[in-house]
Amino acid sequence: MKAITRFFRRKEVETPVDIAAAALRSDRFRLERETDWLRLEKIVTELEKNRTRKLSDDDILDLPVLYRSAASSLAVARETSLDAAALAYLETLVRRAWFQIYGPRSSLWTWFRQFLGGGWSAAVRSLWLDICIALAVMVAGTLVGWLLVAKDSEWYAALVPGSLADTRQPGAGKAILEKSLQGTENTHGLSVFASYLFSNNATVCILAFALGFAFGIPSLLLLVYNLAGLGAMLWLFHDAGLTTDFIAWLSIHGTTELFAILLSGAAGLHIGRSMALPGEASIMAAAAQSGRRAAQVMVGVVLMLMIAALLEGYGRQLVSSTPGRFAIGGSMLLFWLLYFFAFRRSSVGESA
Amino acid sequence: MRNANSYAMIDTSSQKMRRVITTPEGITLPATIASFGTRVAALIVDLVIFGTVTLVVVISLILLAINVFKTADNGPLAEVLVVLLLLSLFAARYGYFLFFELGPRGATPGKRLLGIRVASRDGGRLRVESVIARNLMRDVELFLPWQFFSIASAGEGGIFAGAATVWFLIFALFPLFNKDRMRAGDLIAGTWVIETRATKLSTAMSLENTATENYHFGSAELAVYGEFELKTLERILREDNAETLETVAATIGTKIGLSSPPGDERQYLQDFYAQLRARLESDMHFGKRKKDKFS
Question: Boundaries of each RDD domain copy (chain B) (predicted)?
Fold first, then answer.
């Protein structure tokens, strides 16, 4: 402890050290540059604390210069000095400054603007193959659900979770099923319903994405399971002669929600596929690259699910006519397709 | 304490955890991978902070809701509160880590406390997408198995609770099975977590007493030791422990055959340090480096 208090005292008093009197050349080198290092340290500390207002314009302008000179001091010191304290200090200083200069300079807001203005759609387009595979799997899942229930209606209970099924059971009359597709005039409680739907769906989608880590297989299984339930319900309503009404009821939010589920499954698959078949790159590099691309898609998925929840919570309950529901669902689908595949303003997403 | 610690760290940090980052200027910077224990500790700190804040928000919203329900039964205000609750839980779960790791320190409060941060593995910029990717994975690694576990143990228990535990353990122990201590999220995001303690600049040991040089060592005596010993000597001088100084002075004394007068070990070692450094540095100018006493 004694040594430390002595260092602090010395620093506080700040006695001007006679540079010429220093016997060692490396000490003279250090004393000549020390002030710059300490200034750089001060600037970096303020930047780390996010207190840019405390810095003058001069400080900001000098930062790259100070950084470069500290970096070259480090390079010289490594070849000429054995002052371990100064070397250790310079290494941490240059590293901290480097993080500030090459850190995520763009704010979250700037990133988000770039993301909406091309980054997102570019990321989605780069996953086209995975989207095709996931789509095929989803269609297959729906078919499997339909066929299983058509063969033996006992399957219905296994495929559709109990809380969702309520009155919509095999054997329920047409009137009951028709009623379940009705809207409601009362808006009360709809926002709670919408926010619940959103956080629930988002968790499922994030799960589909993250499970891609296990070579994408669990992501696909999750898609099959979710869509098999849909196929089972489709069969149930078809059996009661309500196919068109059911599809309209589903499509109002379903085009957005199922599209989001499709994208999250594709994102998971993309990671899994690039890890299983990394190609020229190392597995690590391939995983990191695909992970970043998929993460962009996932931010978009969360946004889509918010919209889907609003459509489901409000739109579906308030718009009860079949053509009206088709119109909203269809135009949402058209909007997403145009946005993802026809909208190419910039290639920010790929280079970012 | 920080000063002494950071020097100790330089020498004791295991060689296996050291990596080199190359900056765009071509400067190589050493980086130390954060150990598994440090990261677990950081996570616990974060979960405590995160848990406390969430709990406070939830409780205050519920209390508010109860009061609102009392005054205007089932009013739209109560509905807004429930929506707020659901959305804030979602935002907290995904936002906490994201927000802090995107900041200028690249670290959550827990990481900051333990002196570690997230960095890009390729030495480039830490991208926003990377931080998003590593934190989406956290959900599957941490939150979901817990959720499954609590559902399973409340309901059927048995196999499902066991499966949730296995699931959790696979991801929790993942960092131990790769040399960079990456968790699954780091792997797909292209990031790693490194130590980033700030070091204070301390005065050069050789400047402590240039005016009062008492002891002189000859060329043969200085030729015994190398850079490693010099570094160790610097550390010992900074720690300034009387007993250690005595032992080291005695060791050096017997080795070079010029022992220190009792009671003046510090001065003796300081002079030896300054002169050994002068000699080794002047050799460096001619391209000769002596790594340690064996070379």
Answer: 34-190
Q: What is the C-alpha to C-alpha distance for residues A183 and A169, in angstroms, rounded to an integer?
A: 19
Q: List CB contacts (< 8 A) between B210 and chain A.
A: 21-23
A104: distance to nearest CA of chain B, Å? 6
From chain A, the residues in CB contact with B106 under 8 A are 99, 103-104
- Collapsed DSSP state (helix, strand, coil) of residue B248: helix
pLDDT tens-place string over residues A9-26: 444 444 455 665 666 788
Helices (H) and strands (E) in chain A, counts: 17, 0
Q: Does B242 touch chain A (CB under 8 A)?
A: no
Q: Establish if B44 touches chain A: CB-CB under 8 angstroms.
A: no
**Residue B23, CA distances (Å) to A103, B124, B219 in order:** 12, 8, 40
Question: Rounded distance, CA A349 to CA A119, Å?
Answer: 4
Is A225 within 8 Å of A155 (Cβ atoms)?
A: no
Q: For A89, left (φ over 0), alpha (ψ -120 to 50), or beta? A: alpha
Q: Do residues A142 and A92 share a domain?
A: no
Q: Does B7 touch chain A (CB under 8 A)?
A: yes
From A55, A85, A101, the end of a domain falls on: A101
CA angle, B22 then B15 then B286, to 5°: 65
Number of domains in chain A: 2
Q: Are residues A128 and A97 in the same domain?
A: no
Name the residue in chain B with its Cα closest to that of A274: B188
Q: What pLDDT score does B43 carry?
A: 94
Kindly determine whether residue B188 and residue A188, on different chains, have CB atoms separated by under 8 Å. Answer: no
Decide: helix, strand or coil at residue B22.
Answer: strand
**Same-domain check for residues A15 and A146:** no
ipTM score assigned to the predicted complex: 0.78
Same domain, A86 and A185: no
Q: Does B278 touch chain A (CB under 8 A)?
A: yes
Q: Which of A106, A194, A292 sits opposite B133 (nearest CB)?
A: A292
Q: Model's pTM, two decimal places? A: 0.78
Q: A218: domain range? A: 108-351
| pLDDT tens readout for residues A246-286 | 888 888 888 998 999 999 999 999 988 888 888 787 888 88
The minimal CB distance from A103 to the residues B10, B125, B200 is found for: B125
- Give Cβ neighbours of residue B117 (< 8 Å, ≥ 6 apart): A99, B105, B106, B107, B111, B193, B194, B196
Report the half-sphere exposure of A165 (CA within 13 A, side-chain side).
Answer: 15
Under 8 Å CB pairs connecting chains A and B tally to 239
User: Domain boundary at A70, A101, A132, which?
Assistant: A101
Query: Which residue from A2, A74, A80 is facing B281, i.e. has the nearest CB?
Result: A80
CB contact under 8 A, A24 and B200: no
* Residues A196, B235: C-beta atoms closer than 8 Å: no
DSSP character string of A252-281: HHHHHHHHHHHHHHHHHHHHHHHHH--TTS
Do A33 and A141 lie in a common domain? no
Asked if A291 lies within 8 A of B104 by C-beta distance, the reply is: no
Tokens of B123: 């030495």
Are residues B231 and B11 in contact, defined by beta-carbon separation less than 8 angstroms? Answer: yes
Reported confidence tier of residue B111, pLDDT bands at 50, 70, 90: very high
Q: Residues A155, A21: one domain? A: no
Residues A97 and A141 in one domain: no
Q: How many residues does chain A have?
A: 352
